[in-house]
Structure formats: structure tokens, C-alpha cells
Fold each of these.
Amino acid sequence: MMKRGFRSLHPLVCLIYFIAAFTTLMLYQHPFFLVFTIILLLCFHWALDRWRLLRGWGKMFMILPILFFIITPLINHRGNHLLFYLFNNPITLEAIMQGWIHSLSLLAMLLLFMSFNLVITADKFLFLFSRGFPQWSLLIMLSMRFIPLLRRRLNEIITVQKSRGLSTHDGRFRQRIKNGLLLLQILLTWSLEEGIQTADSMAARGYGLQKRSRYIPYKMKLIDGISIIFLLILTILCLFGWWLGDGVLALTPILEPIFLYGREWTFFFLYIVLIGYPLIMEIREQLLWHSWKQKI
Amino acid sequence: MGDYWRGQRKIMKKYSARFYIFLVVLILTVLLLFIPLLTTEHYLFASVIFMIGSFFPFFLRFEWKKVTGRELVMLAILAALAAVSRIPFASLPSIQPTTFVIIIAGSVFGAESGFVVGALAAIVSNLFLGQGPWTPWQMYAWGMIGLASGLLKNTWFMKHTIGRTIFGILCGFLFGWIMNLWFVIGIIQDFHWSEIIAYYSASFLFDLAHALSNAFFLIVFAKSWIKILSRFKKKYGLLL
């Protein structure tokens, strides 16, 4: 699939967006902000892959936030608005609000990381990593190459050893665990010996003789520079808003009304633009595409 | 005679340096675990600082070190092995020998390699399974487990089955507690003792399973794995 929209930007821009979004998301603990964050992120996921990834993770998305929503009021008893008693436990309105905020912010965080996985693919991750840490990124790349190989070998070992009766599927529990690690032990000795060959072939091709060169597949364009400046300004403004105390729902001593008022709207607007930035890029791409089609 | 004493002093120096590193890491880890309970104002900031302070020196030390191709490949294989080691145990819930592989790697190849294998296993397995807010915590926890087992490798503790078993059990619980921090710090920002205890007791059974499986693996397999890796290290003259 062609990379377009937000994903066609330089990986550094994407990384800055995710760091900024993650920071502001952690700081702005307000249900009003969080609900809009979730809506925007869901739209972004729709634009990215039509929710294909989200469908696979559906269960976790339901269970964890609901768990938080239920547990928090049961163990948190702070607040003045007593609603009712559950098994001699006072349930307060503040605690329910807190649980609501927790589960929303967990959901938003998970959604943000899902989109991180879609946007910052392994190659972009390594590109970003290799700027500061070339040795680590070489090591990560080597290790990533070994994972599919070891998987194939392991399946081979499992098939062969099954014929000897070594299996993790039947027998007593203790024996199954033992068999599992015996399979790994075979994999260990096999792979270490083979690994030496890989290393020697690396040495034969001149590893370590010179400083390693790098292939740089991404170039900074004008729009990337503008995006970075734009995102940084928005982040600083949002941090300022948090410092002023906007965007955080005060629960104690007095429960703040959920609906925004006054200055909070300004920061709400800035925050929404920051979180929705990738969505803006996707929409821009669509509009450009339509206008070009009409020109033809 | 002079040479002998100089050598002895060098060894002493090496050991005491190791001891201090271990002490500092231990203190930082303990502080990291207790900070949410002690300070309720700036724990978020403070715990991140502690994490970076105890993680980055080792991370950068490896980055700047000159490593041969063989050593590099071997570290990559050990980390990949730790990451795929869950596959044979897919039918056995909450049992995975990743921590065992990291402990063994640390206790044969030393603290730095143990740290690298632990942190690398976390990055690589998350690159395949999907990164999440838990990635840095996993890197930290497994890296520190490898580091600790490497630092203790020449002590009585790690040379006997009893000591190794205790170490494995401790690692199982510490890993779980560090991993719980990602939502304690990320989500529940305004928390209370009772909440912490409730969330930590919710994960107790999983941590117990992890600790017991570590202990089992270490009792049954530690000797043969250490033998295999030591032999390999000697055969190919790896200096890690």
C-alpha cells in the first residue's frame, strides 16, 4: 500500500507527535478532553487501516478499562458526595468520576499506542534509533532477523522431537514444562553454532574495519519542518495550560463541573488540534487528491 | 611479588567496583518501587528520573564499547532465543522461560551482556508483538535482572542451586512489580496506599506463577545451560 497522509511525513515528525500526544494525554485528566481524544483517535485509526488492527485487540480494549471503572470506586473512598453503600463500602461520586477518568485515559493511551505501531513501523523505528545509537540498532536488526529463523527451527525441532514422545501437549504438568525447555536447549546449541558462521561471514565482509555507513531513506521536506515547529508550539501551549490548572478535573476539595468554562475552551481547542494533527494531515491528503482529480 | 600484589589489588578493585555498581542499582530500584508510596507530589517526575539514571549509563556504555562480530551475533541470538522461548509453552498459560534465559546469559557472560540480552529481548519481542506503554518498563525490568545476575555471578549466591532459586523467585516478583508501575504511574496519578495494594494483589497470582516457573527452570536446567554456554564461550574465545 502506498504511504500517504501522516505516514508519508518524516519519521522524526511522527515521533515528535507521539511524544507530544502521550505527554499531554498523561497530564490532561479531564473526561471532556479524554472523550474527544478517543473520538479523534478512533477516526485516525479508521483513516489508517479501517480498524483492522483494533478488531484484533478488541477484547483487551473492553476488559482493562471496564476493570478500572469497576475497581476504582470500590477502593477509593474520598469525596463528599456519598451516593450509597455497597457491602458497607461507601461509594462516592468523586470515586466514580475518578474511575471514569482512569478507564478513559487507559483507553486513549492504548489507542495512541496502537496508532504508534501502525505509523512507526519497525523500519522507521530502527531509522530513528540508529541516529543516536548505531550499535544498539545493529544489534536490534540482527536479533530481529533471528526471530523468524529461530521460530522456523523451533517448529522443526518440535516436529522431530514429537516422534520421540517429547511434547509440551501431553503428559504430566511437570514433564510438559521440562520438555518445553529441552526443546529450547536443542535450539540454543544449534543456533549458537550456526551464529558463529554468521559472525564470521560478517567479519569476511569487513565488519569493524571502518566506521559503518548508513542508508538514509527519508529526507526532510518543507512540510516536515513546518509540522515540527507547529507541533512544538502547540505542545508548549498545552503544557502552559496544564500548569495553569486547566484541563484537569478537580475532584477534591470541591468537585468541578464537567462542562468546560472560560479559558479552558482555548486550551481545549489547542489540545484537540495537537491530538488531531495526523487526522488533519489525512484529510488534507484526501482533499488534495480530489482537487487533482478534478483538474484532470 | 610486586606484580602479585598489584594483581591482587586489581582484582579487589574490580570486585569493589562491581559491588558499588550493584549497590547503586539496588538502591535505585528499591527507591523506584517505593517512590509512589513515599511522595505523592512529584513521584511521576522522580521515578522517571530514577529509571533513566539507573538505565542509561549501562545503555550508553554498551553503545560506546567496541564489540566483535561474534560477540554481537551471540548477544543477538540469546535475545532472540529469550523472545521466542514462549512458543513451546503456548499451551501452558503464564509460564515463559524468558527470564530464565536472561538470568543464565547474565551469569555466564557477565553483567553487561546480561543487561544487553534482557533489554534487547524486550525491544525485539515488542517490535513483533506491538509496542505499548509497557515497553520501557519491560526493557528496564529484564535489563536489570540480567545485570544483577551478572554482578552476582562469582558470588556464593549464584553458584549454588539454593541461591539461584531464591534469585529466580525474587526476579519473578520484582519483574511483576516493575511492570505494574506502567499503569500506576501512567494512569492512576492521584493514588492511595489501598489502591496500590489492591492492584498489586490483583497481579499476585501471575507474579507467583512467574516466580515459581523461574525457580523450577533454575533448579532443573541451570547447570546444563551454564555448562553449554561456558563451553561455547571457551571454544570461540568470547571475551564478553
Amino acid sequence: MNPLRCIPYVIKQVTRHRVRSLLTVLGIAIAMFLFTAVQAMNHGVTVATTETANDTTLVVYREDRYCPATSLLPQDYQRRIEDVEGVVSVTPMKVVVSNCRTSLDVVTFRGVPKAEFIDGLGSDLALLDGSIEEWMSRTDAALLGETLANRRGLRPGQRFDAAGITAYVAGIVRSDDAQDQNVAYTALEFVQLAGRDQLGIVTQFNVRVADASMLDRVSKDIDEVFRTAQEPTATFSEKAFIGRVADDIIELVGFARWLGLGCLAAVLALVANSIVLGVQSRVSEHAVLQTLGFSGRLVAGLIVAEGVILSVIGGLVGGAAALAVARWGSFAMSVEGTSIPIVADGGLLVSGLLVCGLIGVLAGLVPAWQASRREIAACFRMA
Amino acid sequence: MTLIECRGLTREYRKGDNIIRPLDDLDLDVPRGDFLALMGPSGSGKTTLLNLIAGIDSPTRGSLVIDGTNLANLSRNKLAAWRSENVGYVFQLYNLVPVLTAYENVELPLLLHPLDRRQRHERVRTALERVGISDRSDHFPRQLSGGQEQRVAIARAIVTDPAILVADEPTGDLDKPSAHAVMSLLKELNEELGKTIIMVTHDPKTTDWATRTLHLDKGRLAETGASLTHEQEALA
């Protein structure tokens, strides 16, 4: 016989025991919401800190400094960095943040030489709205990363204040780089003038090298150039730089993995509890099924299927809710001007559903096995 | 022609240190098309014998051959498949699945058979019409009277067209008119469809519907044994 023919029976068991199913699904949904949120943070850390073969950017920072406010490098380092073999382009950058501490809503201004930026680092940005020409022509103009714009609800033509700077939104851009998604690019001088005596001073240099394999060598060469300078440098690949700066966040997110595991344990307990109670209250019903000719194996399969359905529905509700909140909120955990995005996508939802399905199977296995091994006649005597 | 053949049929249970023997070395033949009533006091082994014949319990000793198949030789899965083909069970308390409608309850055993939706629908409709409850097909058990529930249970028992119907006090929970209607229905199934029916009952009046009645006491047939086996009948 085809066991799939019995799936409608299982669905009726779930949908017609409404209160039990709703409470179970609600519990699972809450736990899976938390699990998906934790996974989204983990995913964000991976996206922000894992180097790929396409990563060819170095960040030159002031040695032994972490906060953008304390990394003060002379802008004329640019020419000396450009002379290092393997360097393709150098973009001096003045970074100003609205909040140097860890927060979910930090506005980071990156002041850049506009023409160099558009030809170099900015060439990967896709303009979603607004005008590059307007950004080029206005001194107070800012190009906003999509995530920042969504989070603040900003559109081209609007003005906004952050970190003591009032800027005009000239355009919204999208980038594969999580950092670009969370910053406002403005003219370098505009940001420098916002601080005292900051003309000619930058926070960092973003350096493009010819090939990812050259990152280590070029970073050593750059630091060697400035080893005896008044402001020595520390150069890292961009992903390593983010990993170093956002170390505290990464540690917290790492700890949050335990929270994620706790959520899964909660789902397992909820589904198992629901299935065990359901099986206990349906001892004679399962005995009737077996009397009708359902094999013990088939009855066990129906019980497991019920666990899987409850678990997957709960996972779908909780996961989808987490996805919606993450997308709607456009959250990013920022520290010292770097951002770890909270990345929730369809892949995360699918993997969550697979985990839920597996948990449903695990939760149903023991009660299903017990139900399948019971003596039918004994079940009627018990009832 | 003998359909059910029991020889030395014994069933024992262990309860603590004691061994309980509800059925003790029983010999019995049931011919095809028989309507057999089993009577006896509580604990006399009636339901145990019924469960053994229905294939939902296994004998401790002895043999039970039904239509040439020795049930003791079947694995759990094969016994389940045998039940779905050969036996319909009518319970005293109906035992309908509460979250399923009358129609869905009757359809349940057909899910095990290679029938498409249309064929299943046809069979369910026929069974419900046969027991006179087709107008209640979309009602849930809680919306039916006891007599109606028992009719649905009988429809569920006959929908796969089994050769044997076993009924454990089918009128035990019903008022008189409902009990009469249910017995009348069982008699029809016996006479018109040729079903072999084995019924446990406490009510002497319902035995009038049966072709013969056997009394059990302490796991053994209590009467002279005149109607036990064909050989014994011949000797008598």
C-alpha cells in the first residue's frame, strides 16, 4: 500500500485537534523565531568576516588604535602607499560614527575623495535611487547604503543628522559588501571639516591590490614603510580588520549559538510533549487502526508524520516572522564604525525547516515505537 | 465448510506472579456463513476468543486456522494485512475516530487497499447506504446517537468486504430499538451477504438472531459440546 494515502488522516489529526496544535505550533514558532534570529546573526558574522578569493581590499589603520576617533593618519600617506608594489588604488577615508559603542543603529560616515572613489572602491556599488551627479556636485551630499537608508527610512532629497553632521541624501546604493550597505559616503573634506583641525587627517586607507594572493605581502610592505613614522600603521585585509574590530560582537554572537541550541531543545521538548500526550490519549484509537489492518510500522509512521507536520508548520511561522522582522528592521550590529549585518534569507528559512523536520522525526520516534509495539488487545483492556 | 478451526486454543497472561488463563484448551469449528453467539459470565474468555479469531491477539498454545491460514505462523505485519482483508470488527463502544466524520471513519480501512479516490468513494457510499446512515455521512461521531455510531462502525467493518465479522457486545451500549435495529442489520449481513459472524453477548435475547449459541465458562465451552466440532457433532 501507499503510505502517502494516509497523509490526509494525519493532517486531519493536526487540524481538528485545534487547541493542542495551535499551542504547540505557537511554542515552536517562538523558539524558531529566536533560533532563526541567532542564525541570522551567525550568518552575518560569516558574511562579514570570512575571506573569499574575491577579497582584494586592505585597510590601513593607525597601529594600536581601534576607534575611528583615535586613528589619525596623515592624508599624504596615500602617495607612499601607492608606490608599494601590487597596489592598484588607494582611497583615503575619514570615518565618523554616531556612536562608537556597540549598537543596532549606528550611522557611519565615510568621507572619501569623490572622483577616486567612483573610479575605485565605489565602482562596485549599484545605484538604486537618486543621482551620482548630484552626489558629485554637492559638498554635503551622501550616498547611503541600502540597509542604512531602509533602517532610517531615508529617501533621496531628504536631509538627516547624525554624529553632529547634517547631510543631504543624493542617492541610495546597494553593495555585496556588508560594510557598504551600512554607511553614508560623503566628500572627504566635508567630514574632515566636521571635526576640529582634521583637514589633512584621515582615519584609514582602503587599498585595492591586484590579486587576493598578494594581501599578506602588500600589508607587510605597507606597515614596513611606516614602521618608523610618527604615526605607524597596522594593515589588515578588510575581513580580518572587521573581525579584529568587531571581536566583542563576534564573541557574543558565538555565545548566542548556545541560545540557538537551547531553542532547538525547546522545540524538541514541545513537539515530543505534544506527541506523547496525543499518543497517550489515543491508545485505543491506535489499537482500532491496527485492528482495521494498519501495521504497527504504519501507525508509527503516522505518529512521526504528525510530529513533523507540527514542527514544520511552527518552524515556518517562526522562521518567516524572523525573516520579515530582519528584513523590515534592516538591523546591523555596529562597533567602531564597522557593521555586522543580521542576514536572514530564504536559505536560512529552508535550513530552519529542515532542522524542524528532523526534530519532528526525533520527537515522534519513541512514542511511535511504543505505540507500534503495544499489544492491540491489551490496549482495549486498558481503555 | 469449516471457515474457522480452533484446536487446543489456549491464551495465558501473566499478572504479577499469577498466570491467568482466560482460554483453556478450546476446540471449535465455525462453518462459513455461520452466525455464532458466544455467551458466558465476565472473565469466561469470550472476548479473548473473539480477539484471537480477529487476529488482534495471539494464542499461547494451540492452533487457529482460518480459511486455510494458520494465524500463529504470520508475522505482525502479515497478520495486519490479513486482518485488513478478512475481518471486520464491531466494538461495544463503537470506537470511531472522533476527529473524523462518519464518511472518513468508514473510508479509513480502504486506505490500506489499492483503490483510487473514486473507487473508495463508491465503496463508502455503498456501505453507508447498506447500514442506512448515508444521510449522516458528514457528521462527526459526537453528533450521532449511539445507534447511529454503531451503524457507522458496522459500515466500517463491512466496507472492505471481509468474510468474517466479529462483534463484541454490539448492542451492549444501546437502547432497545437501536439494539433491535443493529441486530437486524447483522442478520441481514449474515443472510444476504453470507458474512460469517461471531458475536459476544450478555443479552440472551440477542442470541435469538444467531444460528447457534455457545456458552463459555472459565475458558472452556460449558455445554455438552454437541456443537463444538464437526467430528464431535458426527459422533453425537
Amino acid sequence: MGAELKDQLYGFFINADKEGAVNLLEHFAEANGYEEAVKEILEPALAEFGDHWTKVGDISLAHGYIVGKIAEEILTKAADEKVKNSSESNEIKGKAIMGNIEDDFHSLGRKLVATFLKASGWEVHDLGNDVPAEEFISKALEVEASVIGVSAMMYTTAVNIKKVRMLLDERNLSGKIKLAVGGAIFRLRPSLLEEVGGDGTVGNALQAPELFTRLSNSIK
Amino acid sequence: MTGLERVFASVTGDKKDYPAISLTLSLYGARLTGCSLPEYYNSSLKYYEGMKAVKERFNPDILFTPFALAAEGEAFGSKAKYLPFYAPNIAKPATLSPKELLETPLPSAASNERIKYLYESARLMAKNLGKENAIAGILLSPVDLPALIMGLDGWLDTIIFHEEEARKICEKLTGYFVDRANALFNEGIHIIALPVIFSNPAIITKGIIDSFVLPYFSKAFSMVKGPLVIHHGGMQFNNYLNKLKDLPNVAAFAIDAKDKLKETREIIGKEKVLLGNIDGPSLNRYSVPHVEQICRRILDDREGDNHFIFASSAADIPYDTPPENIDALLKAVRRN
């Protein structure tokens, strides 16, 4: 049954049908709880959607936005349900700092990444747009984050990410804090990852949790 | 032939001495005159002097009015950040709600400094440079402009989840677009280029493009008194160009450097003007031989295409582009 519902939900994602998707998840959650809805239906459908986004390439930013909204709504309810039913605090996968690099103001991609990171259990500290390199580092040290995620849409602003790499190296933090980079320009120019000194990048927001987890696990 | 004659011949399909050339040197004019960018993007006289310098130094056949889309957002209250070597960028959208945007008075050249700057720059260019060169204005469609006012996510959210408000906004901005475009044509500019984002299936769903975006394009474009160039807006174009090719008053398409010229020609037909496709923002990284090689490939591809204009694709040619690279490009095309 879970597989069938997952397929239905995936269909709602592809058709950009938020109402249909939320209704399906709510209906399942009424009988089985939100945590089960997330585990049995939402997460597998998100994984398939992310795979489709990466491999087929016919998914629009609007699709990603809608799916992000669906995930946000259901995961918030799942978190509330968990708090209500348990005295244990939710397990955190890791702590991440997010922001658009200095001079960059294209926030949508960053917000989507933050949504999907939170959805998969990350504690995200979003610093917003136009963030100087120093601020990424000081916040990461303050909250003991393992990954800094920096977003830039254009080449002209992406090169400012080099400053984050430089500061991490200067302060001997490169083995302790990993640098994830992303934004449209990294898809257009794959060599930019190396140019700015990033530790990793992904093609879409849904792949971000896997990248952040991998980078975090690589810290010795 | 003058540049203007060469561009007109590209529209009519008549023979030319060499293909018409369109280079996005809007920003580069500031480098040639040594003007600071905040002044350049706020003084119509300084901008005009920059374009005059571009004409004197390179003489591309098409000259652009300010490629400063942020100014369109500033006119509605968005805040821009001025950078030392790049065109200004929207730092903080006005983030108007749909209701607030609908209640906001529309800016005009008489009431708003940013629109006055754009309008005056175009007027000076048309008057003083427009006899020999084609002058291209730059505008945003009624479906694309709200992103600079409400923010990309604000506008995306409105289109997706609040269709009625989105339609009211586009109705309001359709009249604004038509008035702005026709005012530019009345001052003597020759074409208007429209970078389009919200008609690209990489941004918005195909269903919304068909049911929402294209009808507004049709309505707005049909009321404009001059030719329009649809610009790819920084993304590949060919996969949805068939949706745009028959829109009213659209005479030309400027494609991405990754799109295939031959494929585009097949999609748009023989008589529409095709512009492309050396990547403008990469010109500062290329060597002269690399520029020549790309030019040769493009020219070979378009040999015999009388409706082709050799153009830089995407955004501005960067400020730090060696002039030798631009010279090499011009030489390669002009000896063709």
C-alpha cells in the first residue's frame, strides 16, 4: 500500500499539485500518524522526485518550490506530533550554516536547500543573502557546525566563495568544517567547484542532505 | 553599409557586406570612459557617453540602452546594490504583497528618477547614435517584471498559489509595459529586447506557461508599435522556443551559447532573425585564438543565413574583458 501511495504522491509532485499531495498525506496521517506518513510515503516520493530532477532534467524551479512547500508543511506537523507524543528531543543529523555569498541576492535555491536539509533532520542556521566570508566562519564556530553551505547564482558572485575557503585554510579549519557550494552557475560550469575550493556540490536541492551528510561523515 | 542598414538587411534577408554584429557592451562603456558604475547607472548623460565610446572604439551594429534590470525594480521601491565592476543587482526586493503591488502607482519618466534615467539614456542614444547604429531598448515583460519587485520566490508563490492576484498584477503591468515600449519607439529606438525568465520550463511548469504566461505575452506584444527580440534570459531556449515563435511583433530570437543555432533556425523558421551565440560573460576568460575559433564555428554554421546576426549571448561582456578579444571577434566576423 505504501508503494502505491508513494507512486500517487510522486504523480502529484510531477503535476505540481500541492493540494492533492497534502490531502493524500493528511489522509494517511489520520490513520497512521505523520511520522509514518513521512517515512512510508513522503521520503520515498522525495527521493524519486530528486532522482527524476537529476536524471531527466524536465523539472522546473516551480516544481521544486511546490514540493518544498509540501515537505515543509507535513514535516512541521510530524515534528509537532513527535514533540506532543514524546519527551525525547528530536535527533539532529548535524548542524549546517547556509547563506548566499557576499554580493549575491538570489535566495530561492538556498531556501529550498534549507527546507530539504531541515526535512531530513539537519539543524540549519540560515544567514540570508550577501553574507561576508567571515560571518560564515564565525557562525559555524559559534554553533559548532560541520558544514557551511554557500550559494551563488552567477559566476561574478560565486568567485567570492574563495574567501570562505581561504579563511577555513588560514585558520586550520578545513579538516573540521566542510564547504558545500551550489547554485545555477555550478551546473553550468562544473570546474567552478574546484576554482572556489568547494568540498562538494549537487545539481538540485533534494540532493543536498545526502551531500551534507557525506561531507559531515568525512570529517576525521 | 551602416550598422543600422546591416541590421535592417538582417530583418529583410537582403545581402550584407558581413553579418550584423550585436555585442552586449552596456557595462563596457563605463570602462572605456572611466566612469564609476554608480554614476554610470544613474546619469543618462554618462551612460550615453559610454555608448558613444563603444561606438567609436568597436562600432557594433547594435547599441543597447542600459542593461540594468535592477533599475526596473528600483522604480517600484526595491533596493539595489551597486558593485565596482558589474551592473547593479537587486539586493532587497520591495517585497510588496500582491495587494500592495496592485495599489502601488505605476512609475513614469515624469515621476520616477530610475525610469527617467532609462528613458533619457534611450532618447540620447536614439537622437545622437541612432542614424548609423540600431538602438536596442531593454524591457521586462509583464510576467517577468514582478520578480524584481516581489522577489523571485514571492512572485513564484503568487503565480503558483494565488492565480487571481497574479492575473490582476499582469493586467496592470501589461499596460505599463506597452506604454514604456511605445514611448521608447516614439523616441526613435529601433528594437526592444526582452529577457524572458518566466516562460522557461526550467523555471515554471509547462501548464502555467500555456495557460498563464503566453496569453499575457500575446496581449502585451500585440499592442507594441515596433519589433521585439526575445532574449533567452541566461538559460537554454530551444526546448520551448516553439511556444514563442509565433507571438505578435516578435522579429528575432537571441539564444543561449549552449543552444544549437541550426536547431533554433529549424524551430523558428527561415525568416525570423536569429542572434547568437558566443558566450558574452566568458569573453574575459578566452584567448584571442579561442575567440577566433568560436567565431569561425558560428560563422560556418550560419553560412548563407541572411537573417542571422552574430551576437554575444547571455549577460554583459565583463568589465575586465581584454579589448583584444573584442577586436578579434569583430575582425573575424567582418572579414567573413
